[in-house]
Amino acid sequence: MSSDDEGREEYLFKIVVIGDSAVGKSNLLSRYARNEFSAHSKATIGVEFQTQSMEIEGKEVKAQIWDTAGQERFRAVTSAYYRGAVGALVVYDITRRTTFESVGRWLDELTIHSDTTVARMLVGNKCDLENIRAVSVEEGKALAEAQGLFFVETSALDSTNVKTAFEMVILDIYNNVSRKQL
Ligand code: GDP
Ligand code: MG
Question: Which domain of life is it from (predicted)?
Fold first, then answer.
């Protein structure tokens, strides 16, 4: 925690977005941070993050949200990417079962690389593609419950639940931190 020029309390939290290649991580972030969506997947060059602010209990809470630069394609996300993260969105694509089956591996990686308690949200993305769904809502919910994660289905294309996915994580981190300070 720190204070801004007017002495208001400020928070800055690092959040990472992980999951298999092409599940929609970059589009979820661009939808949340800039309200943009791109139909063409383009590889991000270098590690990228976006900073988003929200106000909670009159305090400015900034989330520095990190996106992979395509390293996930080679299962080569480095420990630097995870370092200091206090929140994570673990994303799969509801139309590709293999991406759901990878969730356990991403959670393991997160545990190995993180040094603190991490607020975790399981995100089933592309829920606009109901006609080619390959993972049911119930399966997503069950996995989240078993692993102690929040769960939501999203669409970066039509914006469904995108704000909710990020803001629930930010709120949970804030609650953990403010509880510790009491
Ligand atoms: P990343 O590799 O996980 O960062 O995935 P991208 O954000 O680059 O998205 C991969 C592809 O899926 C792109 O062609 C996107 O346009 C598409 N995509 C991402 N999110 C959605 C979504 O919610 N619905 C649909 N229909 N397509 C999506
Ligand atoms: Mg990407």
Answer: Eukaryota
Could you say which DSSP state residue 6 is in?
T
ipTM of the complex: 0.99
Ligand at shortest distance from the CA of 23: 1
Burial 164-181 (b: 16+ CB within 10 A, else e): ebbbbbbebbbebeeeee
Question: 151: which 2 tokens?
Answer: 């769960």
pLDDT in tens, 61-99: 999 999 988 888 888 888 999 999 999 999 999 999 999
Q: Which amino acid, residue 75?
A: R
Query: What backbone torsions phi and psi does residue 64 show, to the nearest 5 degrees?
Result: -100, 105
